[in-house]
C-alpha cells in the first residue's frame, strides 16, 4: 500500500477511508505543522524527505511544481469532492494502477454528474 502525506486542506474523512483501505497516511496536523503557514515548497520537501506521496486539493501550485521538475515521491492532485468515500476509493484505484509513484502526477477528478 502507499505512503501518503495529506496537505492541510485535505479532508480527514478521506484520510480515514484511505487508512481503512490499508494505506499509511500522515496528515500535516499530525506533524504539528498545521496553522504554521508552511509554504508549498516546504510541504513538498517534507513529503519528499519522508518518502510520501502528497495528497492535495491545491492542484494549481503542485502541478506547477511537478512541471518544474521538483523532486517528489508522487503527487495526487484532487478536485474538491464532498463524496469523501468516493474520493478515497478513486485515489486508491489510481494509486493501485501505478507500479512506481516516484515523480508521478496523478489527477483524481470529481465525476461529472
Shape: globular
Order of helices and strands: EHEHEHEHE
Biggest sheet record: 5 strands, parallel
Look at the structure and give the mean pLDDT.
91
Name the strands of the widest sheet in spatial order.
Answer: 2-1-3-4-5
Helix content: 25-40%
Outline the low-pLDDT stretches: none
Count of helical regions: 4
**Kindly, what is the distance between the CA atoms of the first and last residues, rounded to a whole number of angstroms?**
30 Å
Number of strands: 5
**Assembly level:** single chain
Count structural domains.
1
- Structural class from helices and strands? alpha/beta
Radius of gyration: 13 Å
Strand content: 15-25%
Notable characteristics:
single chain, 113 residues, alpha/beta, five-stranded parallel β-sheet, 4 helices, 18% strand
Summarize, please:
The protein is α/β, with parallel strands linked by helices. The chain is 36% helix and 18% strand.
Amino acid at each position: 500500500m502507499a505512503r501518503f502525506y495529506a496537505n492541510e486542506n485535505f479532508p480527514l474523512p478521506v484520510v480515514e477511508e484511505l487508512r481503512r483501505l490499508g494505506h499509511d497516511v500522515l496528515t500535516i496536523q499530525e506533524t504539528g505543522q498545521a496553522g504554521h503557514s508552511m509554504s508549498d515548497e516546504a510541504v513538498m520537501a517534507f513529503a519528499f524527505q519522508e518518502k510520501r506521496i502528497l495528497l492535495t486539493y491545491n492542484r494549481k501550485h503542485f502541478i506547477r511544481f511537478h512541471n518544474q521538475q521538483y523532486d517528489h515521491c508522487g503527487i495526487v492532485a484532487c478536485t474538491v469532492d464532498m463524496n469523501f468515500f468516493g474520493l478515497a476509493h478513486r485515489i486508491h484505484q489510481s494509486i493501485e494502477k501505478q507500479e512506481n509513484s516516484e515523480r508521478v502526477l496523478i489527477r483524481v477528478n470529481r465525476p461529472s454528474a
